[in-house]
Amino acid sequence: MTVQPGWYVDPAAPETRRYWDGEGWIGAPIPVDATPPEGPPPAEPAPAPPAAPPVPAPVPPGPAPHPGHPGAAQPGPGRWPGPGYAPGPGHPQGPPPGWPYPTWPGRPPEPRPHGLPLASYGVRLVARLIDFGAVFLLNAVVNGWFVWRYVEEISPYLRESVRRSLSGNTSTEGLPQPGEQAAGLQIAILLIATALWFAYEVPSMAAQGQTFGKRVMRVRAVPIEADQPLGFGRATRRWSTLGLPTLLWYCCGFGLLLQFVDAVSPLFDHPLRQALHDKRAQTVVVQVPRATPDTRTAPHDRANHPGDTP
């Protein structure tokens, strides 16, 4: 591939235009919207020769460093490789016009927000299941009576529907209807469940970035911009994306579908593995390292003191 000499947009700085002489970029860049001059830019004055470095003291001969050793000679800055491209001496580094700019070779390294590794999806899932178990126990205590009353209201309808289904009768005529209080009880159950989830998660996340499940699994939610507490407002925004759809469970499970999409979204987000509620609150979930005891302040075991004899 041969590129004719002329003024082209620099791939490394698309807001500038430079002159390509057929082998490399020469001259100073100009703004991309400026009218380039005819022909190549004027030659730049040659830099003054550097002062001669001081002569180092003689060093005794030793074994030559192996390749890759800090003392070994390293190759100079490489030029853009490609068929038909032979860079001339003194030409600046960079691809010719129309060539793709180099990207990261292979897979880029995993990001470490604030120096901490990202929590894996499996660890986050286990932490969320622990929290769901804790919220379920709270609902069993607070919401138990409402659930029992709701089951009593709809049980005649369910029993008759199951009996007809087992006998092969698909008719819906004469089915007993749920009680008058069934709809109100369903709304009350969902409101109480949502409020309990909010009270369980938001205050602890606002203060520490951790719920009980996250503390057990040693993960923590932190803001992207700084390693600091989330605060009540950010913790509420983060929870509401996942928690408020609970109120839509009665709409043919539409709320549950929204929560499922949110729950699996970290699997498809790169490189920060953010769920939808993380993106709304601009947070990431990191793995908290295990605390190592300070040997200077930890109490010594007098039974096995180094100076004692057994």
UniProtKB/TrEMBL annotation:
Q: Note whether Cell membrane occurs among the keywords.
A: yes
Highest taxon of the lineage:
Bacteria
Q: Where would I find the DUF2510 domain in this sequence?
A: 5-37
Q: From which organism does this entry originate? A: Micromonospora sicca
The record places domain RDD at: 119-281
Q: Which stretches of sequence are listed as region Disordered?
A: 24-108, 289-310
Q: Where is the composition biased (Basic and acidic residues)?
A: 297-310
Extract the signal peptide range.
none
- Which segments cross the bilayer? 129-148, 182-200, 247-268
Q: Which protein, by its recorded name, is this?
A: RDD family protein
As recorded in UniProt, coiled-coil segments are none
Pro residues bias spans: 37-68, 78-108
* Places the protein is found: Cell membrane
How does the protein associate with the membrane?
Multi-pass membrane protein
UniProt keyword list: Cell membrane, Membrane, Transmembrane, Transmembrane helix
